[in-house]
Amino acid sequence: MEKKLGFKVLACFMVLTIVASLFNFSSVKAQIGYPLPVSYIDYNFPDSYKSYIDKMKAAHPNWTFKAVHLNLDWNTALSHETYEVNDGISLVEDIYGSEWKRDGKNYYQDGNYVTASKAGVAYVMDPRNFLNDQGIFMFEALVYSEASQTAGAVQAVLAPTLMGSTRKNQYQSYGEWKYLNTTYAELIARYGKEVGINPVHIASRIRQENSGNLATNKLIDGHNGLYNFFNIGAFDNQYGSAVTNGLTYAKNHGWTNVGAALKGGMQYIYDKYIKYGQNTIYFERFDVNNPGTGQWLLGTGYMTNIFAPRSEALITYNAYNSYGMLDLPFEFHIPVYDNMPSYASPMPTPNGVYFVDDNTRVYLDDPSDSGVTDEFWIRSGPDTSSSIVEKIYENQEGQNNRTQFTRTGIGYNTLYDRIRFDDGRVGYILKKWVHEVTYTKVTGVALNTTYTNMSVGNTMKLTATVSPQDANNKNVNWSTSDSSIVSVDQNGNVNALKSGVATITVVTVDQSKSATCTINVIQDKVTSISIPENEYELTLGSSTVITPIFNPTTAKNTNYTVTSSNTAVATINGHIIIAQGEGTTTLTFKSEDGGHTATTVLKVVSQDKEQIVVDEPLKLENKYITGLDLTDNTVDAVSGKIRTGYNVKFVDINGKEIFGTELVGTGTKIQFSKNNTVEEEYTVLIYGDVDGSGVINARDLLVLQRYLLNKTELSQIQVKASITDKKSQVPYALDLLVIQRHILGMYTIEQ
Q1: By three-state DSSP, how is residue 203 classified?
Q2: d(C-alpha 50, C-alpha 331), whole Å
Q3: How far is the first Cα of the chain from the last one, in angstroms, to the nearest whole number?
Q4: Is 349 contained in some domain?
Q5: Full-prediction pTM beyond 0.85?
Q6: Cα–Cα nearest to 622, from 749, 551, 534, 529
Q7: Rg (Cα) of the chain, in Å, rounded?
Q8: pLDDT tens for residues 447-505?
Q9: Residue 388's CB: how many other CB atoms inside 10 A?
Q10: Which of 494, 522, 550 is the last residue of a domain?
Q11: Which of 22, 313, 368, 567 is the least crowded, having the fewest Cβ atoms under 10 Å away?
């Protein structure tokens, strides 16, 4: 039975774990925090993937391969998927060799499952190890596709089980065999279409969970009139055994017949995993994909067995193969991490076996039978039980007539050496066939620069110089640490895509010597401009300057022009706006760089209007009143600091008039009237008071947190109140921390 990791995380921002005490949030050690990376999909694979993908495309032209760029660091993800962060997140059965276990020992976590070694997790997590005909199906998209996901394919998966053979249309109920009106395969195919989930995957999952054993599996044998085909909720705890808890879950969800249990379980898998980005077998096991709907990462997995994706992929492949469906147009979503190793992570080696790093060019030969075709079996591990990566047949003698490899490790306590194909694949070969190529080795590589600045949209060329000058193999490979910031082709041409810092690395094919260049990409072109306020007011004969906000803040050219739609109301002298006559006019601001525009309304009023004067610390700024003293912000206190000939009225954020000792908060409108006509209106702005109550407390944290999680909307004034630094355009998770520190008395938000 595969174990489930429950949904244990309620927060996606690091700062929310800080304020957990205020909201009773729970957490797991394996989650990552703010900022939560968002993935994107395209067809652009890193160089280390391309040889595998090209080979698959050639063999299966109808298949589609898409790269899921996770924007997640490989080492971070690997650490979180191992005992370094969570002892129980990645397990293997205790029957496996010591190389697959932490410290080579049995640290039992659940039944006969023990903590996996980091090398073992790295091997199964690295997608490049499974870009072959069988392994590729762990990356098959799990949403429903009518073209390939038929009842026949489901039947092919179930065929070796009772659900697909002698009992394919039967079930037990309290010990009595009864007939379905259809078969399990047809039911699963139908519900797959209704739920929107791949039914072949569902059939594979049922085999993975309970072997489709309708006769003796306690969760699906119907002995209690209950059915739980996916072992959902089936785990041991203080309340009962896995079987007891699994049956209790089925009872609580009304799974008292086969149809309800199948569809309910499929809906559970879709709702809890697939729609949140866990939409392949790989992503169900490794929670690393956030297409924009995720609330956390590395906190939810459908199973803890590290071999489960490989096992389910093989079941799926065998089903499609036996049904003659491998030429159908499958779509595969293959994960790509940031900062991955240059080559696929090797299979862990048996206990006592180790390899000394080496970068020598070698070829294979059996000199004892010159003139005879030699056959060499290259394996996935350093023993005869490992699978065969490739068979090499060669009959011409001499190093220049043989396929050459790079020996990356000289094996000890084993008969094998580790070699790497020039396309990046890694394998193991009996060392007695390995012969060194006589040639001039690479000793180093250097770039023409190690640091440079670039502007978004610009290109440059990096030049690699390989030494010594007479080295036989001067070929190099190029890579970027972040393909969303800068891209690089295999000629060293660099393209700056967005602002940020990335590292370009060049590695020699021979000897794996490397050099790096750090590139700081700056967006210095204006992308847009905006005006701080929608409306301004000037008294007749006065003047002002309104400066637009340039985006991004790193823009170089901040020159702009201003025009007035009504010169009788206002004229422009350079950037100075001069009030000429009563009325309104539209001011248009245009950037010199890019010609971006923004507008605002200017209202010119006569000089005989009543004056409005406020006492410190109150401030009148662009129709906002700020600077309130939060220890004395009642209606009486605030009105006592305002001197004017107008009648003054206070209306809170909900539109209710307030009086006397009621608190003035964010969004409160202070209206100044004369002869029952509102002549002026100012809105109160209290930084940190997001809900408009007039105090800064835990409710403001909750309101802002829900806004950041897209759970609620805020008014424009509430958004401004959330921006505690008074400068940013939008609130961030850091504002939650500032508000929380203010509440705890560790910081004071200046008003």
Answers
A1: helix
A2: 17
A3: 59
A4: no
A5: no
A6: 534
A7: 34
A8: 999 999 998 989 999 999 999 999 988 999 999 988 889 999 989 999 999 888 999 99
A9: 11
A10: 522
A11: 368
